[in-house]
Structures are given as C-alpha cells and as structure tokens.
Amino acid sequence: MKTKSKLGRRMFATVCLAVLFFGASCSRSGVDSAATNQVLTNSNSHQQNALYVLEDGKLTVNKTLSFLVDPNQEPADLVEEQEAQLVQINETLQAEFPKSKALTAADIGTMHTFEVTNAQVIIDQEKKEVRMTGDDFEKVFKMVDNNDKRLIDDEQNEYEFSYDEK
Q1: Which of 162, 159, 164 is CA-nearest to residue 37?
Q2: Backbone dihedral angles phi then psi of residue 63, each to the nearest 5 degrees
Q3: 17, 25, 92, 147: which is deepest, by most CB within 10 A?
Q4: Which residues, 6 or more positions from 115, have their beta carbon under 8 angstroms from its beta carbon?
Q5: What is the pLDDT, as a whole number, of residue 100?
Q6: Does residue 135 carry a pLDDT above 50?
Q7: pTM score, two decimals?
Q8: How does DSSP assign 31-67, residue by residue?
C-alpha cells in the first residue's frame, strides 16, 4: 500500500512540475535572434520605415523619419510647421533612444541607425506582446489578432516579426 501511495505522490508531483514548466515556457519565451520589419505605416506617424534586428545580444534599429505634409498648406506656414514637427520627432526619438542626438531638418528623410547593447526580445503570449529591452532601451509591441508574427507599436505602425527561440 505504501508503494502505491509513494508512486501516486511522485506521479502527481511530476505532473505538477510538467504543467508548471510547460505553462511557463508557453506564456513567455526568450529569443535568440529576431527581425521586426515595418510593413504598414500609420498616416499620422513620422516614422516611414523601421527595422529592428536582434543578433548576439545586440539590437540594431534602422529608421527613416519624415515630415507630415499637407498639400493645401501655404508655403509660408511650411517652415513653422516643420519646426513644430521636428520637436515632436525628437521627443519621440529621445523617448525610445535616450542617448541619441537631436535631429535637424536636414536629417529628416534619411535612414538613421541606432544600436542597443545587452538586448533581448521576450515574447509574452499571455499579455499578447513582444518586449524588446536593452541598455537604456525598451519597446513594447502588441500582437495583432493574437498573431505573434504580426505586431503593432504605440504609433499604430504594423510590423512583420520573425524569430528563433533559445
């Protein structure tokens, strides 16, 4: 009788551990390498293209930013509007990359590269999000329609996401 009782407890403990391990590994997973490529741009976003690539603990981000242009705007108002937009662009950029230098109007329209060290990507299936972190960096993407291959950022730009798990 004692043997059956011990066997039952061991079986129960093994099943509990398996469920705990399986549940934890399904809800959050670490990523070895990843690429997040912008495929749709929100018409109200200054960001026109973006690519986030994680390799060997380093995250490389390439971004192209642009001014939002109203074709009906008077040319005299254009400079003032671009200056106001440049302030917004720099605020957004500083929030994402605190150590980046402020951009000038001449910098707009060209691709900019940012590198983040000690980077990692965490997929959280429970929260339906992908979190990228590193030194002085954190960005959270939400999964679109519970699909971990399609993400959206806080500016409503949409991305294609591919990754290899650890």
Answers
A1: 159
A2: -135, 145
A3: 92
A4: 58, 59, 60, 61
A5: 93
A6: yes
A7: 0.80
A8: EEEEEEEEEE--TT-SEEEEEEEEETTEEEEEEEE--
